[in-house]
Amino acid sequence: MTDNNNSTQHESSIPTLQEILEERVEACWYAPCSGSANGNPNEINNEDQLNGWKEYAFLTETTSFGEYSFNPAAPVAILKQVHPSPESAQSVVCQLCPKHCKISEGRVGFCSARINRGGRLYSRFYGRPTSLAIDPIEKKPLFHFLPGSPILSLGTQGCNLSCKFCQNWQISRPLPANESLNRVLEPEKVVQLAIENRCPSVAFTYNEPTVWCEYVLHVARLCRKSGIKTAVVTNGMISEKARKELYETVDAANVDLKAFTPEFYRNYTNGSLEDVQETLEFIAQRTNVWLEVTNLVIPTLNDSPNEIQRMCEWIVNTLGPHTPIHFSAFFPTYRLLNLPPTPAETVIRAIEIAKKTGLEYAYGGNIPNEASQSTFCPSCGEKLIERSRRYETKITPALTERSETEWICGKCERKIVGVFK
Ligand code: SF4
User: Fold this and answer.
1) Atom 2 of ligand 1: nearest residue by CA position
2) Rounded to two decimals, what is the model's pTM?
3) For residue 129, cis peptide bond before it (omega within 30 degrees of 0)
4) Which atom of ligand 1 is nearest to the CA of 100?
C-alpha cells in the first residue's frame, strides 16, 4: 500500500469517516418493488418513486458491456442503450447480468439499480453508498488475502437476486420512497478514506456489486493507482462481458455458492446455479484474482452430506483443491423465519466432508468453534494463522515468507496459497 496523502486531488474536501457515516441525503431515489410492468417480470414499475434521479453523479468511460459517459455537470451515471428492443425504440436491455432485463422508459430493472430514461440506461446508485465501514478482512470472509488487515467496505442499493434468507435485505431490496439510506461518496474520496484509515484494501460488499459495477470499476481503478487492493463479495451473477472487465480490475473475490442444485437457486434466490458456476470457473481459470467461496448452510434446504460432497468435488476439480471454502451457519431472517439456526455440528460435518473430498482449506463461520476458523498446513497440520470468533487474527511464525509472492509452512515447507502482503 502507498500511504501517501498526496495521491488524490481533493484532500481538503475529504470528510472523515464519521462525518460520512452521519451524513444523510434527503433526496429519495428508491423504487418500491411493486410488481412487473408490461409483462416483464424483471422490471419494476413505479415512476413516481424515482424523484431525484437526476441528482446522481456521472461517469465517463466505455466498458465491454456498454457505453457510458461521465459529465460532472449532468450528475447521472449512465449505461447507454445497448440493445434497442424490437418492440419499442424506448426499451433497453441491460447487459450487466444474466437476467438481461428489458426495461421500458421510466422503469427500473429487477435489481432496482438501473433505470431507463429516454432510451438510455442509467446506474442509479453511482457514488451513493448506503453502507460504509472498516471491517476486519476476515468478516468478508477472506482468510488468505491480507489476513489480519482492516478493509474499507462499502455497499449501495439493490440486488439482482432476491434470496429469501437475505441477511442484508434492508439494502438489497427496494425501499419505500420516503426512506433513504444513501450518502454521497465520490470514487476519489473512497481511496482517500482507505489511505487515511490505513486500510490496504477496499471491499465492494453488503449488496451485490455487480448492479453498481460502474462505481466499482471507477473506485477499483483509482485504488490500483494508489497501491490499494480491492475485493468483491458477490453472488457471481454477472454477464460474460461485464465479468471480464470486472475481474481484470479487482484483486480478490469471495463468491457465494449458495447451494448445489438448480432447484434451490430457482426457488430460494431467483438466480441460476449454472451462471454462478461459470463465473467461478472464469475467475479460477482465466484471471489472477484471489478467489474464496462461501456456502451458507441452511437446515433441510442445502445441508445434505450428498449435496455438500458434490459441491466440494466440483470445487476440487474445477477451481482447484487450494480454493478456501467457508461454510457459514444460517440464522432465521427475512422471509425464511420458519427454519431453525444451523447447528454447529452440521457446519463441522460440512468441513469434514470438504477435507475428505480434497479441499485443503475449509472453514466454519457463525459457530462457536475457533479451530474451524484458523488456518492449518494441509500437509503437517501446523497452525499458520490463528483466528478468534471476534475476527482477532494472529499470523504465527510458522507462516514463512519464501519470496515476495510465495509463502510456505515453516515446519514442512509446504507452499501455502494466498496473498499475504
Ligand atoms: S443488472 Fe441485472 S437485474 Fe439489474 S437491470 Fe441489469 S440485467 Fe436487470
Assistant:
1) 97
2) 0.83
3) no
4) 7
Nearest-angstrom CA–CA distance, 406 and 412:
14
Atom of ligand 1 nearest to the CA of 114: 5
List residues near ligand 1 (CB under 6 A).
Answer: 42, 94, 96-97, 99-101, 109-111, 113-114, 160, 211
Q: Using CA of residue 168, residue 174, residue 179, residue 180, what is the dihedral sign?
A: positive
Taking the C-alpha atoms of residue 214 and residue 67, their distance in angstroms, rounded to an integer, is 11
State the distance from the centre of ligand 1 to the C-alpha of 163, rounded, in angstroms. 15
* Helices of type H across 79-149: none
The three grid cell numbers given for residue 416, joined into one nine-digit string:
501455502
Write the CATH number of the domain with boundaries 131-416. 3.20.20.70
Residues of the chain with CATH 3.20.20.70: 131-416
Find the 158 Cα to ligand 1 centroid distance in Å.
10
Q: 10-residue block means of pLDDT along the chain (421 residues)?
A: 34 48 32 29 35 31 37 33 47 85 82 78 80 92 97 92 90 61 80 94 96 90 97 96 92 98 96 98 98 98 98 98 98 93 97 98 93 96 91 94 92 96 83
Q: Which residue has the cell 484509515?
A: 197
Task: Give the amino acid at 234.
Answer: T
> Separation of 241 CA from ligand 1 center, angstroms?
13
Helix (H) or strand (E) run with residue 122 in it = strand 120-123
Q: What is the CA(162)–ligand 1 centre distance, in A?
A: 12
Q: Could you give phi then psi for residue 62, rounded to 5 degrees? A: -120, 125
